[in-house]
Amino acid sequence: MEITWYGHSTFGVEIGDETLLIDPFFDNPKTETDPEELDPDYVLLTHGHADHIADVDRFRGAHFVATPEVISYVTDEYGVEDGTGMNLGGTFETEEAYLTMVRADHTNGLDTDYGASGGMPAGYVISDTKPTQVSDEESQTFYHAGDTALQTEMRDVIAPYLEPDVAAVPIGDHYTMGPWQAAVAVDWLDVDYAVPIHYDTFPPIEQDTDDFVREVEATGSTAEVVVLDGDESFDLGGELDY
């Protein structure tokens, strides 16, 4: 499984012969990627805020996964042709991956004249093996936390049952967790690697990633903080390569 950060909360995930794209928003200062160069099989949306769905219309041919409310919105407003609406706790199976939608503590207003809600915001746990109560040390699993505050489901559900190897957690503060809460999340998740996201895009969320590194160390977590440059990738198979 190879993971590429395109800045803000936008990720590409290559798993087997499939490519997933999460929260397409390429108008951010960390990326130089032209979204027209990408051809994902699936697009996953954590919620309906503009900085997570702005480039949805570039990928109309992909299969979209989101809450039913967000799927309806991007179908009507962005011309999405193919989508699956699901909800928290559900797992969507592709030929190569299992996509489990998990809770995120945030808001989910849609950009409409009547202030519609996109339902509950979400995160995704993406694995190459089916999640069960039986631990699988051979699986490769990536957790995209979405826009969230610190919440105990990370400790009580995601860590023990979904067993992520790497977690992408927001550190920008103001709209999401800041560095110290994100560090507690990393400790609770018991991951091997932590990737900071959702920072430096706008003035209110400017952060020094060194603060996040220090906060993770202060928790006693053994996770390695991986600060990616925009458009940089790493591979979960074998040794970390970034």
Automatic annotation (TrEMBL):
<dbReference type="InterPro" id="IPR036866">
    <property type="entry name" value="RibonucZ/Hydroxyglut_hydro"/>
</dbReference>
<dbReference type="InterPro" id="IPR001279">
    <property type="entry name" value="Metallo-B-lactamas"/>
</dbReference>
<keyword id="KW-0378">Hydrolase</keyword>
<dbReference type="InterPro" id="IPR050114">
    <property type="entry name" value="UPF0173_UPF0282_UlaG_hydrolase"/>
</dbReference>
<protein>
    <recommendedName>
        <fullName>UPF0173 metal-dependent hydrolase GCM10009017_16040</fullName>
    </recommendedName>
</protein>
<dbReference type="InterPro" id="IPR022877">
    <property type="entry name" value="UPF0173"/>
</dbReference>
<feature type="domain" description="Metallo-beta-lactamase">
    <location>
        <begin position="7"/>
        <end position="198"/>
    </location>
</feature>
<dbReference type="GO" id="GO:0016787">
    <property type="term" value="F:hydrolase activity"/>
</dbReference>
<comment type="similarity">
    <text>Belongs to the UPF0173 family.</text>
</comment>
<dbReference type="Pfam" id="PF12706">
    <property type="entry name" value="Lactamase_B_2"/>
</dbReference>
